Amino acid sequence: KRGAPSIISKGKRLKKQNAGLFAAIEKKYGVPAGPLIAIWGMESGFGAFTGNQHTMSAVATLAYDCRRSAFFTEQLYAQLQLIEKGWLSPDFKGAAHGEIGQTQFLPANVLLFGVDGDRNGSINLATPADALASTANFLRGKGWSRGVGYQQGQGNFRAIEGWNAAHVYQRAIAEMGAEIDG
Prior knowledge:
single chain; mainly alpha; 9 helices; 2 strands
């Protein structure tokens, strides 16, 4: 559990400080604040570090690498679409595998699940509102059901599995989320 106590502590404060945002997200997508905040804390330290890699170069390199070429070629085309829409700069900096924003979305997921949480006319995953609403939309798209539990063995745990394939990560998100939701 990478920094679980500090993520939970800061997560509880952020939940209280942004109660309106989290209430609106839960009303629209059915996802409570806890797992969203846990993902946000795990992925970027609540936006403190979203990456320092030139994402176009990273994704293009990975698309050329034969181990997962098809997957990253899809990400490359998606990133080009994000640039064309004006949602990303060609010089955008993110994580080493092309993940972007405060909750570290892959480019294809931005196209599928990205939403304008700020309602300002564009998607900017560098803002908490857009990143958290998009993350909730992703979880809903992976089968999240309003009012169903999200611990291991409960219905919404599968949606968390869709976010990250590592079982230890999935359990950490679920457990920290429950602590944050109190």
